[in-house]
Amino acid sequence: MDIFSKIAAGEIPSYKCAESEKFYAFLDINPVAKGHTLVIPRQEIDYIFDISDEDMAEYMLFAKKVALALKKACPCVKVGMAVIGLEVRHAHIHLVPMNSEKDMRFGGEKLSLSQEELKGIAEKIYAEFKKL
Question: Would you please indicate which residues are annotated as catalytic (active-site) residues?
Fold first, then answer.
């Protein structure tokens, strides 16, 4: 079981933002912006484009719902989406609240947020997600 599967299974603590039977969303603990969220399939699959067409459609709709909740919880101009996937061999989408394009710079300095801040952000996103 990889690290993201362990997170989705609750074996490793996370700041949960949303979940369904097939997908799980949680805060990145090394965020590029406040509210930076990772969306993963519960199925262990390395490369996002190896996901079946049916599951990909569901995955994108789930990510869209998370993005809508994220935008309400962390007001921003837009929520950016990126699929990088080299650092962890489990497909994942990065959702990042953006007020400018520099908010999507993954190679730059990461934010340092307290556990209390991360918990509060995750709770806000999850509350907004439940409303959708």
Answer: 92
Rounded CA separation 79/100 (Å): 10
pTM score, whole prediction: 0.96
Residue linked to tokens 């300095």: 109
Question: Cα torsion for 86, 123, 116, 31, to the nearest 10°?
Answer: 20
Give the Cβ contact number of residue 80 at 10 Å: 18
Per-residue tens of pLDDT for the chain, all 132 residues: 999 999 999 999 999 999 999 999 999 999 999 999 999 999 999 999 999 999 999 999 999 999 999 999 999 999 999 998 788 999 999 999 999 999 999 988 899 999 999 999 999 999 999 999
**Contact, 16 vs 122, CB < 8 A?**
yes
Task: Measure the CA–CA gap between 102 and 47, rounded to whole angstroms.
Answer: 26
**Angstrom distance (rounded) from CA 116 to CA 23:** 25
Distance in angstroms (rounded) separating the CA atoms of residues 51 and 71: 26
